[in-house]
Specification:
Elements (H helix, E strand, L loop, with lengths): L9 H17 L10 H21 L3 H27 L10
């Protein structure tokens, strides 16, 4: 099945929703971390839908696959940063759910 726009991809839509949740979560992090882990977390989160979109706009399915792989790697990076943040008790516990 051909998908005309990356915006129609459910994975892209969910990744954008994740970015919004990440921004809300990191709003409560300690202010000294704004240029540290907050910046890293937000960049990792934004990288996921961005790479999906860029890959979809590329000319070949091989390129798309490559950018999906990058998006998956960004997800692993984000997950690691969230685990560290939670262990450091950054943010509100109920926003991690």
């Amino acid at each position: 099945m051909f998908v005309e726009s990356y915006k129609n991809l459910i994975v892209w839509q969910k990744a954008v929703d994740l970015v919004i949740k990440i921004y809300k979560l990191t709003d409560d992090f300690p202010k000294p971390e704004i240029y540290g882990i907050v910046s890293q977390i937000r960049r990792s989160a934004i990288s996921i839908p961005s790479n999906i979109a860029e890959g979809r706009r590329r000319a070949t399915s091989k390129d798309f696959h490559h950018f999906l792989t990058i998006a998956i790697a960004s997800g692993a990076e984000l997950e690691t940063q969230i685990i560290i943040s939670k262990k450091l008790n950054f943010g509100k516990e109920n926003k991690y759910l």
